[in-house]
Amino acid sequence: MDTENTRTERDRSSATDRPDPVPAAEPGTAAGTVEEGPRSRRFPGLARVAGLLGGTWRRSALLAVVCLGAVLLVSRFVVQPFHIPSGSMEPTLRTGDRVLVNKLVYGPDAEPERGDLIVFDGTGSFVREGAAANPVQEAVRGAFAAVGLAEPAETDFVKRVIGVGGDRVVCCDKEGRITVNGTALDERYLHPGDAPSDVAFDIVVRPGTLWVMGDHRSDSRDSRDHLGDPGGGMVPVENVIGRADWIAWPAGRWGSLEGTDAFARVPDAPEGSAPDAPGSWSGGGPAPSTAPGSPGAPGVPSPGGGAADGRPHG
């Protein structure tokens, strides 16, 4: 019997069947256990997907910030959405409408004209100077208002220009119509059933200012309600934000805001006709609106409305 050959075969088979040796434990791990690697090593496909999603979210966030910045810039300098919060401009503009205000239409060589629908800051003319608001709240509100998602500032108004610097605006003639420089207006844009004005006035518009009124005269607090104020109801041209040119919302009212021919026959004011004092009247006698005890005189409330309540009106 060849004992050497037998032992050699047994040794070879024993080596083959012997299990692999357990690797030495890493420091800090229990003996006889194998430390698992991170999932990214065990599942390389998952790591690639996670990296891709992370990059997508970062790119999306950056794109959103860039788009928001572009919208705010356009709103600040070119076209701004403006939410109509009241019915003072009906039927031309309705409560809830969102109009686009053209900020490029006016400049050093182009001022508001009679009949224009303007948005303006009424601080100092329609609204008294007040305490400063919380800057953070104002910044947030301003950002939302800039894209039409919030109501405008309480000092912002939208009205129609009736008189520009030098114009004499009178209410009313024998037929109850407002006249500008002696020419009666055919105001077909007025709210049905409204009179041109229930408040008598006779004013000459100071240079650099505007006389403005709402189309819904019985529901509009406008220049008539500030005849006795220091500014005489006049809105400085420099406070004009822009002209409302389009209705952007609701969808059924999309379109441009048409102009009016009500002022087509109104002549320009004669040179030197504008007074120096705001709201003054130069007509050879006491103005009906500013004579003592008359509607609109200092301390005398005007029929059909009082001082502006601080809310933007249409």
UniProtKB/TrEMBL annotation:
Indicate the residues that form the catalytic site: 88, 159
Please list where the region (Disordered) is annotated: 1-40, 214-233, 263-314
Q: Where is the composition biased (Low complexity)?
A: 287-299
Ranges of Basic and acidic residues composition bias in the record: 1-20, 214-228
Q: Does the keyword Protease apply?
A: yes
Q: Where in the cell is it found?
A: Cell membrane; Membrane
Instruction: Give any Pfam family that matches.
Output: Peptidase_S26
Query: What are its E.C. numbers?
Result: 3.4.21.89
What does the UniProt keyword field contain?
Hydrolase, Membrane, Protease, Transmembrane, Transmembrane helix
Q: Mind telling me what this protein is named? A: Signal peptidase I
Gene name, please? Answer: lepB
